[in-house]
Design a protein that fits this description.
Elements: E1 19-20, H1 26-31, H2 63-86, H3 89-110, H4 112-134, H5 140-168, H6 174-202, H7 205-226, H8 249-261, H9 293-296, H10 309-312, H11 315-318, H12 323-350, H13 359-365, H14 367-378, H15 380-394, E2 398-399, H16 408-427, H17 433-460, H18 465-494, H19 496-530, H20 532-540
Antiparallel strand pairs: 1-2
Helix pairs in contact: 2-5, 2-6, 2-7, 3-4, 3-5, 3-18, 4-5, 4-7, 5-6, 5-18, 6-7, 6-14, 6-15, 6-17, 12-17, 12-18, 12-19, 14-17, 16-17, 16-19, 17-19, 18-19
Length: 545
């Protein structure tokens, strides 16, 4: 048992997601001697996944370049999320969930870069076209069409950023950059509403469209010139998930022998000197030359995958069979939808007695979840990375994706306090500071839960991460639309206390789900890995890796 994470009953089997990240003991130094490690204070950390020997492998890029690319991608995610608020979220959410399903196979087959640039370019042209028509017509259908085009075209920058984190960073580095992505999305959702309201009231709704076009036009140029392709076809041997850690050297040798009998190389059987053969299928020549800047600008690099596009459209839905994906979809959808549920109800609550807020003051109340979202992303990210390294050391150098799930405990406490506190504070008409504070606390809890669950998805199912994040976007779009559409009627029929008590319970289920995965997640990962039904479904949909 590794720190409460139950070991599978079947010993000696490879469990996806379980990796060596530390080699503090002589025993582990022997096991990982031929694997590549970090530098500086991370010199004892085994790099997961193992980078190839190609200078064009994003894992081998200079750290500064990785960070710049990550920040620029997150900037785009924030802009896409924020400008969606300019155009009304209801229609953009529906079109986003459809586009996420249609475009994720294209990103896997041809790479993320061309898909992102084409989508954003389409969004800009679409909004320019329908905003021009609006100047000559008041037909509401043009507004619906424009919002749908914008939502569909901006969807890629939201879900492809998260899978790009897995392309660029090793497992012990991902927490911060996934939290950065979360910050961008939540900041866009929160601040976008405030900015859009000010633009519409101060200038006109047409200017909201124009600002969206201006911002995204500038961003697509940044994306083209400064964000190279992050998708890279790396041999499967670099995904160094390990076999079960056995108690002694004899056990490890027996495990290696068993693997060899099954036709698999031992987990540590890499070539001497830390170099790994990359000339096998799926790899690249060792002597590959670094790309020039002009070469990195090209949009078409050939097919990165031979999968069938039309079958692959179902691939995101198939990933819901993976527990990590299902949990992330549930957690993220609830976090965003419930934040919107409170936002939608704010106007009717704070403009009435005893608060009597002006419209501008109601808009400023949305800044509370913005602060909560920022803290809920920036604080857990570095803490989660520290937990990874610290608990792995205590676990004989072996990292389990479930380690991060301990943060579900503060998310549970803060979430119940936030949602229940908001409902009770409004019901008992206490000072406005209390409901505004609890609104921010609920946002903090929702972001912690969604960040941890999305990181768990990436660590457990990295090769399915792109499809997984597409279905996360799908779930968010569906639940956000449903909650935004029905929440006022629900509040009118059931009352504040009952509604936010139920919302708090739904959030709590997500936290308890994560804690159950902490205990049983490793066993579940092995069951899923060995499930013929799940593997056949994923392969049929195009995931043949």
């Amino acid at each position: 048992m590794g720190l409460g994470v139950l070991e599978p009953k079947a010993k000696g089997q490879k469990v996806p997601g379980t990796v060596y990240v530390e080699r503090e003991t002589e025993h582990l130094r022997h096991l990982t001697a031929n694997l590549k490690h970090g530098t500086g204070r991370y010199e004892n950390v085994v790099l997961v996944p193992q980078p190839s020997d190609s200078p064009n492998d994003p894992l081998n890029w200079p750290h500064r370049k990785k960070v710049v690319v990550s920040w620029l991608l997150c900037l785009g995610a924030g802009l896409a999320s924020g400008t969606s608020q300019f155009l009304n979220p209801a229609h953009t959410h529906i079109s986003k969930l459809i586009a996420a399903i249609l475009t994720t196979p294209l990103a896997r087959i041809y790479g993320k870069r061309p898909v992102l640039i084409v989508l954003i370019g389409s969004a800009i042209l679409g909004v320019i076209g329908y905003s021009t028509l609006l100047s000559h017509s008041t037909n509401i259908k043009y507004i619906w069409a424009g919002r749908a085009i914008w939502g569909a075209s901006s969807s890629g920058i939201e879900y492809l950023v998260s899978s790009s984190v897995g392309d660029l960073f090793f497992v012990h580095q991902r927490g911060f950059h996934l939290s950065l992505w979360h910050v961008a999305l939540s900041a866009g959702n929160s601040i976008g509403q405030v900015i859009a309201a000010q633009i519409v009231s101060g200038q006109s709704y047409q200017w909201a469209f124009r600002y969206a076009v201006i911002l995204m036009s500038a961003y697509v140029l940044i994306l083209f010139f400064f964000v190279p392709e992050t998708a890279y076809k790396r041999a499967s041997k670099y995904d160094n998930d390990v076999r079960e850690i056995l108690a002694d050297e004899a056990g490890d040798q027996q495990g290696s022998s068993d693997q060899e009998e099954n036709g698999e190389p031992p987990a540590s059987a890499e070539k001497p000197g830390g170099r790994i053969d990359v000339t096998e299928e799926g790899g690249v020549p060792v002597q590959e030359k670094p790309e020039t800047y002009l070469q990195s600008l090209r949009l078409y690099r050939g097919r990165l995958s031979k999968e069938n596009y039309f079958r692959s459209i179902l691939s995101p839905l198939a990933t819901l069979l993976l527990p990590g994906v299902a949990w992330a979809a549930y957690s993220y959808a609830c976090a965003v939808a419930f934040s919107i549920a409170i936002s939608v109800s704010l106007s009717s609550i704070f403009t009435a007695a005893p608060y009597h807020f002006a419209t501008s003051a109601v808009g400023l109340a949305v800044l509370s979840p913005f602060v909560g979202d920022i803290l809920g992303n920036l604080i857990p990210g570095p803490i989660a990375d520290w937990i990874v390294v610290s608990m792995s050391r205590r676990n004989n150098g072996v990292y389990e994706p479930e380690f991060r799930n301990l943060l579900c405990i503060p998310a549970l406490i803060a979430g119940l306090a936030g949602y229940w506190g908001f409902g009770l504070a409004i019901y008992h008409r206490v000072h406005w500071f209390a409901p505004v504070f609890f609104f921010g606390l609920s946002g903090f809890a929702g972001q912690v839960l969604s960040l941890i669950s999305n990181t768990y998805l990436l660590d457990c199912h990295r090769k399915y991460a792109q499809d997984g994040y597409a279905v996360v976007t799908l779930a968010k779009g569906v639940l956000t639309f449903v909650v935004g559409y029905f929440v006022n009627q629900w509040l009118a029929e059931s009352g504040l206390i009952q509604v936010f008590f139920i919302i708090g319970m739904i959030h709590g289920i997500g936290c308890i789900w994560g804690l159950v995965l902490y205990v049983y997640g490793k066993r579940i990962r092995l069951v899923v890995h060995n499930s013929e039904f799940i593997n056949d479904a994923l392969r049929w949909c195009g995931n043949k890796e």
